[in-house]
Amino acid sequence: MENKLRLDLNNVKQELKLLIEILKFDNGHTPSSYKSDRSIDWETFLSLAKHHRIYPQIFLKADENQQIQIPSQIINRLKKAYQKNTIKMLHLTHEMESLNSLLLKENVRMLFLKGPVLADDLYGDISRRTSSDIDVLIPIDELDRVHDLLVDCGYVKDDYISTVLSDWKWRHHHVAYFHPEKRVKLEVHWRLNPGPGPEPNFNDLWNRKRVSNITPSPSYYLGREDLLLFLISHGARHGWSRLRWVVDIHQLFQNQSEELDWTLIFKLSKKYYSYQIVGQALLLSANLFGTELNKEMDPLIKSRKAVELSQNTVFYFENMVNLHTEPLPEEVAKYHKRYLFLLKTFRQKTLFILSFLFPYSDDADTLPLPKSLHFLYFPLRPFLWFWRKTKKLHALNRGI
């Protein structure tokens, strides 16, 4: 690989580097970069394996390859975590079948996005990947009906979106449910990613769908190209802060690269402005796991933007960043905000900036108006925003 395409990983902890090297073991083959004669903080090693959600693969690699030297007490803890995850994935698979049967019976089209279906597709074994919930995609006009079906089954809506002028349709992309008895979290998506911005419509995704056989009834999930682009957009949006997401990309190429339609990938990535992050994902996978890239990918990986985005991602490898734990440390919050803006194309940045002109639910909280007058929030928004900022500044000054 050309030097300009190589990532600077000098400040990444050696424990994470060791985890990456272990993941590169293949059928007993020892990667040339593997070194066992180093000082490792094994508690940090274990914490990173769990943080990056790669402990199932690490345990299995160590179990299959005698060259991997990990203290027995760490192996035992990895084994317990692996076994616990296996039970969790079996539980999710069972619930997946219940949901699938329910919606098939009601003639509701549904695509599984991640969870056991993804683990089986990429790794051939649901125990080799972690998942905390079930993610499904449905047409937006089925949301109310699916909500009623889920409530009847015992699910409770876990988050309620504050909205005005139906901005939830494009600002958000999913709503969460929780089943208190089954202890299952379910995310129902109507978009693949939060807006603003264009996305493939459900019908196109449905027409390119595949069928999984991990459940008795046919379970539908994304086609290869759509899955690749979804995994990339999801990982990029989270700064690839879980190494598992890069492992998924590598695994997809290992198993299915010859079956990918690169003409379609180029077409979709340009149409939906994900060209630069596809290049970012390929560079990360190649740098970290030695993913073989072919000439078809050169336009993607050799763009200045893809190289820049890839190097910016190293921040998330140097730090154990958990974007789901609020509040974020100030340094992380600022960096991630800048990173997300950098991810966007010029068109996406323009749409993002213009979206601030569209009313927020905060505007309705600041000045409640009858629904018939909600259109007034458009001209009033700058004044309401200024009023909130002024009140916040006064509150801070009084607290000094």
Q: Can you describe this structure?
A:
This is Nucleotidyltransferase family protein. The chain is an alpha+beta fold and 400 residues long. Among the domains are: 94-222, 2-Layer Sandwich (Beta Polymerase, domain 2); 359-399, no CATH class. Helices cover 55% and strands 6% of the residues. The protein is built from 18 helices and seven strands. The protein has helices spanning 14-23, 42-51, 55-64, 72-105, 115-123, 143-152, 168-171, 202-207, 224-237, 243-256, 262-271, 275-289, 298-301, 304-318, 330-343, 346-355, 361-366, 377-399, and strands spanning 111-112, 134-137, 156-157, 174-179, 184-189, 210-212, 219-221. The chain has a five-stranded mixed beta sheet with strand order 1-2-5-4-3. Strands 6-7 form a two-stranded antiparallel ribbon. The radius of gyration is 23 Å and the shape is globular.
Quick overview:
Among the domains are: 94-222, Beta Polymerase, domain 2, CATH 3.30.460.40; 359-399, no CATH class. Helix content is 55%, strand content 6%.
Secondary-structure element string: HHHHEHEHEHEEHEEHHHHHHHHHH
The pLDDT mean sits at 92
Low-confidence segments = none
Determine the structural class based on helices, strands and strand pairing.
Answer: alpha+beta
Morphology: globular
**Spatial ordering of strands, largest sheet:** 1-2-5-4-3
What is the CATH T-level topology of the domain at 94-222?
Answer: Beta Polymerase, domain 2
Strand and helix map with partners:
Blueprint: H1 14-23, H2 42-51, H3 55-64, H4 72-105, E1 111-112, H5 115-123, E2 134-137, H6 143-152, E3 156-157, H7 168-171, E4 174-179, E5 184-189, H8 202-207, E6 210-212, E7 219-221, H9 224-237, H10 243-256, H11 262-271, H12 275-289, H13 298-301, H14 304-318, H15 330-343, H16 346-355, H17 361-366, H18 377-399
Parallel strand pairs: 2-5
Antiparallel strand pairs: 1-2, 3-4, 4-5, 6-7
